[in-house]
């Protein structure tokens, strides 16, 4: 028997609803049950608009669920999730700070002296391969470089949980793979719990220990949960060539495909109605 | 177009305009002087007047007064505008209550306030400073307000997830964003500070460029009026160059339009 690892993030029967403009209530996610063990890398995949990001915001404490519970390391979550680092899909760097200051800020506001914060930020910029770009402002960096800075900005605080919302979504295919490998490399150093949202099934399988599938919204539910049988450490270029990868991909896609079609039909209907 | 060519063409425009002006003001064409000197003066007289002002040194006193009034109007107006803009943006309820009054005061043409300021503050520099402040205040106010409101939700959420308290959010997120908006309106607000000073002087004062122009006009000295205008525009251009230099330093983090990278 394995030794029981603590559960880092637990969503229990979490339902998230928004009040929309005309007073109706829009249920984004319904009764989601999800547990991420400490040190586990879980990817959530679902069609566009299924509420994947919503679920992540609930785990971050940025959103309150309408019903259900959120527990972080077996304690109920109150307010923001202080154990979590969040890597956003959109640009979230402070445009008026240099790359170095952007990375150092998390330590500075926690009370680390500026000198030490800068020294450690420099190391982190080095680990994401941007040592030479410390004095650049975000607009002088490429999209991939900005994501690296974002990764360093989050990881320097050494959060126990890493929440990632399609972090590599806006990047081109090659850069995504490079960033994926970089993420795995940094993650394997001290295995944090990761909740990684993506709409790219291949990316999910290549990166994660477990892949969770959500149905099309509204009232999206978790409809599947697969363990990824690929060995670690992993290189995601090679993982994609693995026979097990293909088998799992086919299996999950057979479930996901229907939801993607449904999600697509709904979004195009919505466009016609409005 | 090369720099040299551009510069020579620009100079050519000035020379042609001045030569035409001089010609029609002094030579009679078809038995008529088309620009009577009494109304239009001529470039030589205007130039002589400008040189005379600088040679005798009278102009410096007036320039300094106008400059000082503009600086005071800019600094006080900016400080007040930034403070109130920040406060309103962070306290939407306060902003909602004051909204109609802000709109009302802003809708008022500021010139009508000049007599009141003269009455309250006398003929000295402060009535001009006050007029400039009413102009600068609103520009800075609206920009700072917008700057705080425009902070992207992602950047704000990121700041919160990185552990910032409300105070740290203000310092590291709202404040820099507001400042950047304020700086980008620097040209306009500095320009309005000068406008406030000169219009104030023109309407009643004992010194300054506006006073100089008004005096010349009072004795139908058209050359003096044009000379005052010339010095004033040179003065504003110099200030504008200074602002551009300051701006370049303060907004290094801003992408230059068209240079953005993906």
Description:
- The complex is a heterodimer of chains A (274) and B (262).
- In chain A, 39% of the residues lie in helices and 24% in strands.
- Chain A has a six-stranded mixed beta sheet with strand order 6-7-8-3-9-10, sandwiched between helices. Chain A has a four-stranded antiparallel beta sheet with strand order 2-1-4-5, with helices on one face.
- The mean pLDDT of chain A is 88.
- Chain A is of the alpha/beta class and 274 residues long.
- Chain A contains eight helices and ten strands.
- Chain A is globular, with a radius of gyration of 19 Å.
- The longest helix of chain A has 31 residues.
- The two termini of chain B are 30 Å apart.
- At the A-B interface, strand 6, helix 2 and helix 4 of A face helix 8 and helix 9 of B.
What topology does this entry show?
The complex is a heterodimer of chains A (274) and B (262).
Chain A: E1 7-19, E2 25-37, E3 41-45, H1 52-60, E4 67-72, E5 75-76, E6 84-87, H2 99-109, H3 114-127, H4 143-155, E7 161-165, H5 173-190, E8 193-198, H6 201-207, E9 210-214, E10 222-227, H7 236-239, H8 243-273
Parallel strand pairs in A: 3-8, 3-9, 6-7, 7-8
Antiparallel strand pairs in A: 1-2, 1-4, 4-5, 9-10
Chain B: H1 3-26, H2 37-40, H3 43-56, H4 58-90, H5 92-107, H6 114-121, H7 125-149, H8 153-161, H9 166-184, H10 186-203, H11 209-218, H12 222-250
Helix pairs in contact in B: 3-12, 4-5, 4-7, 4-10, 4-11, 6-7, 7-9, 7-10, 10-11, 10-12, 11-12
